[in-house]
Design brief:
The complex is a heterodimer of chains A (114) and B (117). Chain A is mostly beta strands and 114 residues long. Chain A contains no helices and eleven strands. Chain A starts with a strand and ends with a strand. The termini of chain B are far apart. The chains are: A mainly beta (114), B mainly beta (117). At the A-B interface, strand 10 of A face strand 4, strand 5 and strand 10 of B.
Chain lengths: 114, 117
């Protein structure tokens, strides 16, 4: 295992539901990331946190709301999602937000929006 | 911004043969090129990386080459085994804080490698 865990592994929700994805890293890292992985598309960076402070938001719709209460935990709060938001959501962590720092990925949450 | 193209999208080889996956990038400022392997039901895992001051790097059956002039880099897997079957992603990033950038990784679309026994 990589030291990055994600729950739940699978989630089905309706467009009016509110749900949250959770990520936890046991590596002592200071940076955490949310990525979206859709079929036949490159991984899309959504958010970057460094020492619990958001340092990047890649034009992600407001229906996705991240939260980083401490350097080990990262959440992605979901509300009023669209079917096109169905994808694999990956969390990653690295020692710091440096381009050459290895990013360690969790197994992802497979999200289906009905 | 950076754009990474990856080819082929699918690759099937016989066990024991070699596999080559190629990527091109657009930003000449990019200086870090990792390769990730993603097995079914798992997140991507780093398998090898190369920096722009090096032309080639090898780790057992895996090697990566970089041509900065042509802006392309390749992954070479020799003596392929069934457990090499997975989706492979290349990525590129520029130095952190270059022009205000955080040095984020830009990924290719991935190559699904199948190794037939």
């Amino acid at each position: 295992e990589t030291g990055v865990t994600q729950t739940p592994r699978h989630l089905v929700m309706g467009m009016t539901n509110k749900k949250s994805l959770k990520c936890e890293q046991h590596l002592g890292h200071n940076a955490m990331y949310w990525y979206k992985q859709s079929a036949k598309k490159p991984l899309e960076l959504m958010f970057v946190y460094s020492l619990e402070e958001r340092v990047e938001n890649n034009s992600v719709p407001s229906r996705f709301s991240p939260e980083c209460p401490n350097s080990s935990h990262l959440f992605l709060h979901l509300h009023t999602l669209q079917p096109e938001d169905s994808a694999l959501y990956l969390c990653a962590s690295s020692q710091a937000v440096l381009s050459t720092d290895t990013q360690y990925f969790g197994p992802g949450t497979r999200l289906t929006v009905l | 911004g950076e754009n990474v193209e990856q080819h082929p999208s699918t690759l099937s080889v016989q066990e024991g043969d070699s596999a080559v996956i190629k990527c091109t990038y657009s930003d000449s400022a990019s200086n870090y090129f990792p390769w990730y392997k993603q097995e079914l039901g798992k997140g991507p895992q780093l398998i090898i990386d190369i920096r722009s001051n090096v032309g080639e790097k090898k780790d057992q059956r895996i090697a990566v080459t970089l041509n900065k002039t042509a802006k392309h880099f390749s992954l070479h897997i020799t003596e392929t085994q069934p457990e090499d079957s997975a989706v492979y992603f290349c990525a590129a990033s520029r130095p952190s804080n270059y022009g205000g950038s955080q040095g984020n990784l830009i990924f290719g679309k991935g190559t699904k490698l199948s190794v037939k026994p």
